[in-house]
């Protein structure tokens, strides 16, 4: 009975995680923006197609008002897809057949988004893998009860967790240029100097690597997972805390909350693995 409850809890947490990812991205796409222009304005990639197949010169294409409307409409359409995917997850047991198709399409949309975010960062592979959890868990949810997923679920989730935290760590230690957002959040929240923020990020980046490796070591895996869960939640809520002001409470909430929402699974997935390990 106790084992069944743990299994049920782990599935519910996975379900919640998928809903959070889709809702956060739906919020972003419907009310804000997405990096679609990075793709549609990529001259090296699209110029031959535009000038040969469509038959117009690149400047005319790039400055076309119709293109701008098309991009805005595409971003909004993906936002609606993510919203429908979240609803599909919530109502999955009642509309399984149609929900499965919608969630699958939503997962593909998240995969495309990860690619676009990577291309925006000049194809830094770490940027792509930083979203591993987000674009993978919709597919895990849909195929959760399949034999292969059930047999290898702990390993799959560990690999996704490791990918996200190693990718995050590569930016924190400076392997790739440290994002100004990282430095800004650390300085704002902890009150450090820029150099102090860099030193702090170096430490947490190394801890990201250590934690990602130790989750595969049976005797210490649970401690590493607890650390990564805590750090996953802290980095999620940091998006809300940094730059917060009561004077602009609702504006900042609308602007930043979605970034926290779609990152919360970074803290939830280690908890799911802990539950699965306890059951095992």
Structural summary, described in words:
This protein has 280 residues and is mainly α. The protein has one domain (2-279). It is 81% helix and 0% strand. It contains 14 helices and no strands. The chain has helices at 2-31, 36-40, 43-54, 58-62, 65-90, 96-120, 125-129, 132-142, 147-172, 180-190, 194-214, 221-241, 249-261, 265-279. Helix 1 (2-31) crosses helix 13 (249-261), helix 5 (65-90) packs across helix 6 and helix 8 runs antiparallel to helix 9 (147-172). The longest helix has 30 residues, at 2-31. The radius of gyration is 20 Å and the shape is globular. The model has no long low-confidence stretch (mean pLDDT 93).
- SS field, number of helical segments: 14
The structural domain count equals 1
The counted number of beta strands is 0
Please trace the helix and strand order, writing H or E for each element: HHHHHHHHHHHHHH
Radius of gyration: 20 Å
Biggest β-sheet description: none
The rough form would be described as globular
For the record, give the distance between the C-alpha atoms at the N and C termini, rounded to a whole number: 14 Å
Category from helices, strands and their pairing: mainly alpha
Quaternary structure classification: single chain
What is the average per-residue confidence, as pLDDT, rounded to a whole number?
Answer: 93
Low-confidence stretches: none
